[in-house]
Amino acid sequence: MVAIFRSAERAAPSTRRRYRLIELAVLFVATVAIVSALAFTSPWSLIELRSYDYLTTLDNPPLPEKGPVIVAIDEPSLGEIQHQWPWPRALHARLIEQLRAAGAKAIGLDIIFSEPAAAPENDDALQAALGPDVVLAGDETLITTPQADQLVRTEPLPRFIDAGARVGIASVGLDGDGVLREMPHYDDSFAAETARAAGFSVPQPGGNTMMQSFGPARTYPTVSYYQGLDPKNFLPPDYFRDRIVLVGLSLQTAPDVKAGAPDTFATPFTVHTGRLTAGVEVQATILDNLVNGLSIRHAGVTVTLLLVLFGALAGSLAVYRDTTWWTAVAGLLVVTLFVAGSYAAIRLGQVFASPVGPSVAFLMVVIGQAGFDYAAERRSRKQIIRAFSQYLSPAMVERLAGDPTQLKLGGDTRTLSILFCDVRGFTTIAERMKNDPQQLTTLINRLLTPLSEEILACGGTIDKYIGDCVMAFWNAPLDDREHAVHAVQASLQMLDAMDRFNEELRLELAARGEEPYGLRIGIGVNTGDCVVGNMGSSSRFDYSALGDSVNLASRLEGESKNVGLALLIGEETARQVSEAYCTVELDRITVKGRTEPSPVFTVLRNRPSAEDLAEHQRFLSAKYEGTLSTSDPLLDQLSQAMPALSPYYAMIRSRLP
């Protein structure tokens, strides 16, 4: 199954690449079509406008120098003047005269005087104070009825216009979310007429332009109305000299959005403060935009669609090869670049090209392809689980399925720890059950099950079953830095499982009145370089390991019966597990194909004393030199000191002359 899965993956890389290109092409076209269609809807426009709010208020642009000064009709003025609103027009006339005397270049009254005053002398006083340096507010209102749309224009009294005062339309247009962003489209807007009264040349209003805000409410220099009536006593010298002065309602405490107030508006800064800005301060902002050429043009539909195309293309390139966690990083970076580019266009070119369209297009392609890849990953995960569930523990299969990049198949050279386990005396048992092959099969399966479970529990990969023999290895297909330790751990647990199995078997045989017998196993473990991958023919193959280290592991398993111990390990395995287990050298064997003998070790569960280990080393030296005899007291001494090795010492004694 493993080989079939992997070979199928390798068989058609061009097909997978072709499918991916088709997926990307579909995502690209669908994304461009969907985002382009959404770009013409009102909700989308409002999202883009909200991005404009954040971008244009990101760095809190400074106020232009020598901008307008505001004389506010505010709470302190209402308290000082002691008149009910509306105030007598003679009071406004006095204010105009005081401001003019203080050196103001132009005076704009954001107040509509469209009806005669109750006291005619008040209108016379105001008319006498007016001149070409004064701008009075007008208003335009669109009244929509089922029959028709009617534009109603409200202007000051004709006598005030005849006195030389200018008229400026103070009406402003709000966007669908109630926020004031648009520059007025009137040629005779209040701000434009005030700028002209001050001697500035104001261009004709262009379509689709938005104002640049400079701060929240009360950003502009503001004094109270009563202070403007007596600037010599209340204000610094020359406070109004050569400045444009705008007069209008402006409360000291800016109202919030929920409370509201007359002649107040939400501006781009409202997203940060939740406060409304007075209409007179809005007029000051518009005036500065006109005089200093600071208004911002909307890029338009063509540029928006081109940016959507670019965003979809960038998304396609980002996921052209694969989608990983780096794709998320790239996505964050690209969206940041779109936002930074939009901000740079505002500041350097005074053009608003919304980052929403390209960002959404980019993310739609990336997320769409991630969805395709996730579906493919799920299919791959199921294939991996099916392929490896017979070879690895469930935890290892889950780990491999969760990160298939750890799967490296097909002839890799890796350092493995290989384990061989064989049942001792299996031929005798088979002869005993020759008339009941079903019972023999059941017995072997019962035996191999706990042994296999111990291998899988320690993270091993079961290579194959050869009759009553099990071959397993560690450090493939998943990396395992402690592979030698885990192989030895599995070996010791297999020996414990064997003891439990024999006890269960003894009780069963006794219950049936049969002659009891026990089973024994021999285990060989070796560590070394191997070739691991798909082995076999073109029609049938398995995931397996080959190499000299595998042969030595098999030889160690066979040699275990000759030394009287159940577990033998190779020299490299002993070196790697020396800190975790007590290893003792037993012999040296020559493997087929080698000229130098290889040391053979075993593992002791209980660590002997240093003196006993030194005595064992002296025993080995005598054994290798051929000076050991059956009467040597070392054999009895070591058998008592290290009872786990007593079968080994007894076998050595039996072989001595």
Explain the layout of strands and helices.
Elements: H1 2-11, H2 13-38, H3 42-56, E1 69-73, H4 75-81, H5 89-101, E2 106-109, H6 120-129, E3 134-144, E4 149-154, H7 158-162, E5 166-169, H8 190-197, E6 209-210, E7 222-224, H9 225-229, H10 231-234, E8 244-249, E9 264-265, H11 270-273, E10 277-278, H12 279-292, E11 296-298, H13 301-318, H14 325-349, E12 351-352, H15 356-388, H16 394-402, E13 412-424, H17 426-432, H18 437-457, E14 461-466, E15 469-474, H19 483-512, E16 520-536, E17 541-546, H20 548-563, E18 567-570, H21 571-577, E19 582-589, E20 598-604, H22 610-625, H23 633-641, H24 646-655
Parallel strand pairs: 1-7, 1-8, 2-3, 2-8, 3-5, 11-12, 16-18
Antiparallel strand pairs: 3-4, 6-11, 9-10, 13-15, 13-16, 14-15, 16-17, 18-20, 19-20
Note down, in words, how this protein is organized.
By secondary structure, this protein is α/β, with parallel strands linked by helices. 49% of the residues lie in helices and 18% in strands. The strands form 4 sheets. Strands 13, 14, 15, 16, 17, 18, 19 and 20 form an 8-stranded mixed sheet that branches. Strands 1, 2, 3, 4, 5, 7 and 8 form a 7-stranded mixed sheet that branches. It has a 3-stranded mixed sheet with strand order 6-11-12. A hairpin with a 2-residue loop joins strand 14 and strand 15. The longest helix has 33 residues, at 356-388. The chain starts with a helix and ends with a helix.
